[in-house]
What does this fold into?
Amino acid sequence: MILLSMFCFPVFSQEIDIGEPETQTLKVRQWDMFLSLHTNGIGLGARIERIKSIKLQHGFDMEWTFYRHFKEQKLDNFVLGKKNYFFLLRGGYGCTRILNTRPYNGGVEFGFFFYGGVSLGVSIPVFVNVYYISYNDNGQAILNIKTEQYTEETYGDMIESKAPFFNGLKKIKFHPGMYAKTGLSFDFSSNDNFVLKMDMGVAVDIYALPVEKMMYAPKQYLLLTGFLTLHLGKRKSIHDL
It folds into this structure.
């Protein structure tokens, strides 16, 4: 969070640069929804920002992200060796510094951003439907199917299918931690009242309790991903308030 403070706050008093269009300073607030594609899955989120000046934006960032292990390989409707579904919930604060404002004749505005805050990982165990053979009093074999948690003791040829997702909710685990993400932001908005941006960067999540997603793979205290994010939203000027 010290890095966040150094990144965001030294330019509170910054005003309009000489030669830049004064009309840009009328925009005071913006919000957007975003879709994020990252190296281990997909995420959805929202961001609310206050425009401090044409060079600086501060805001709150909220995100839900599904995370898959890079070793996952799907066989029919089942991922062999997958022990847990894993989701991330993030909530934080940060800012975007604009390096190049959009000129009068249009173009792309770009800058770089840094956001950080709390992260909550959610592990939900995988359950499977497993074959079991029993025998009646006459010695005849009877095939039974039971639903149970997928573990290292569950043999692949015993598995009939993946069980419904909700079976794992009774053994849900939480992983409290922190996150940070940084990268470059490109604003393609042709209309100054709307937000059309793309971010590209890296994110890191650190947890107090390790995350286990695959059998025989190391438990992870740190998750590092690269991402590409599309933002769509609206801006408000001082006249709209």
